Amino acid sequence: MILVSGKEVSSRVQDEIAIEVEKLKANGGKIPHLAAVLVGEDGASRTYVNAKVKACERVGFGSTLVKLDSDISEADLLAEIDKLNNDNDIDGFIVQLPLPKHINEQKVTEAIAPEKDVDGFHPVSLGKMVLDLPSFLPATPAGIIEMLRHYNIPTEGKHCVVIGRSHIVGSPMSILMARNTYPGNCTVTLTHSRTRNLTEICASADILIVAIGKPEFVTADMVKEGATVIDVGIHRIEDSSKKSGFRLLGDVKFDEVAPKCAFISPVPGGVGPMTIASLLKNTLLAVRLK
Ligand code: GUN
Predict the structure, then answer these.
(1) Domain boundaries, given as residue ranges, for the chain
(2) Is the pLDDT reported for residue 290 higher than 90?
(3) 137 within ligand 1 shell (Cβ under 6 A)
């Protein structure tokens, strides 16, 4: 069993980006600048956004964190987005999800200028992805593709099962795995809450990508011997024995699944760091496309 270390791959990608930034600086070019909008005080979202800002510092990007109260109106949030759209120094920005219930996430996503949509969630970005046109790929699926490439995991002709059809992970992931390229050329099954015989379908997967958002949902009986398992889930479970007061679990019951796998990504240290690497790559691309 080989552990797919997103932490290691992300670190390498970030080193490569840092070299590119140095080159840009040496040539008097624009230093990439990423902004992140955080609405409210959700602990997990704060942690993720802070990690994104820290990664910017590591590679030499400029970064801006826009912190807004959880009771901000939709109109005021849209006005903040408009400011970022029109700020020439900001090359790309993200609005951390989820947003408070009173705000329409789709409306917010569509308000982001497509040329600054480094999360790749805008309909223009997703449409280009479907058509195989150059675009900002959604950060988590793009990070998973990068991990598969880095570990030379065979994909052509393989059966890839994706669990979860979210707009930001499962659905784009299924499209990327079916593309006529490497990694890709899979026969893809996209499964969800209404899928029948989920255990049997998963057990026939050569590559199983789990983004269902339920702690330890995938058990050993759902996994074929020699499969590749990519775990997108991340859950904070209260644990008073930890200094932080919680421990992290994925969507996969790692201890019983790992011995059956050819490759498996851990939580933490798997997909999470790759999302950040992709976001930085997209920001560099935003500068280049300017
Ligand atoms: N919430 C969970 N994942 C993501 C992500 O990749 N981007 C944003 N903006 N919010 C998220």
Answers:
(1) 28-114, 139-272
(2) no
(3) no
